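Summary for the steering committee. One of the milestones for this cycle was to obtain a three-dimensional model of the protein with magnesium ion bound, which we needed before selecting residues for the alanine scan. The sequence and ligand used are listed below.
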Amino acid sequence: MAKIFCVANQKGGVGKTTTAVNLAAGLAKVGQRVLLIDLDPQGNATTGSGVDKRTLQRTLYDVLLESASIAEIRVQSEKLKSGGCSYDVVGANRDLAGAEVELVDVERRETRLRQALAVADADYDFVLIDCPPSLSMLTLNGLCSAHGVIVPMQCEYFALEGLTDLVNTIRQVKANLNNDLQIIGLLRVMFDPRITLQQQVSDQLKAHFGDKVFDAVIPRNVRLAEAPSYGLPGVVFDPSSKGAQAYVAFAQEMVARVQSM
Ligand code: ADP
Ligand code: MG
């Protein structure tokens, strides 16, 4: 049975999608079977995995509306196959924004993804869910499906404020809908050790959250930002870059953490 993780943070632009696609590629690189689910109507994880979101016939939308199974929807990018870091993708595009509205009146609306995963997760070691930047019905579907949450964050002052909201949401979901749910860890991303404030916030994080802060630190690295325009995770686009190496180290750390879960 796969371990299922949401990459979540209700702030936008904090590195969720970059983390989701590069962790997926990093895990594949170290021999894990991975499914990446794009839960954001922006479809960035889809594009960043080399899948054209405009030509997708069916997407996660169809899974949430129960008109298709994950096995029918998942795809794999040809480019990733040749890069040796291949993983399956359940893609998303703008259609997914409609699911939010269409699910309002249906039963079991927050557990649609969990049910779809229950019949697909035996094929994988890891399922990663790239969440949208909100605490919406879509995110709730992700949180209800997962064993844990990976929280990417930049070491800035406001990052800590946003974290309180996310921690409270996770606590509520755990109490009411998904008893398994926990924060697996906080991942420091876009890190620049030359900036004193970032060092200070990083120290504060470690003081507050202890070993919930991952050892791996993802540096600010332009190769990670360039990779999506080639439809590739940074880990595949430039494996020797500092950013790619950091994400592979993070993948190894995740494999070790899962063994002790
Ligand atoms: P989110 O999914 O949380 O909105 P993204 O992963 O899309 O965030 O990242 C926001 C922007 O920051 C993107 O342009 C991305 O390429 C860039 N970015 C993310 N991580 C890094 C990094 N470690 N170094 C440099 N740029 C990064
Ligand atoms: Mg994103």
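Key point for the committee: The radius of gyration is 17 Å.
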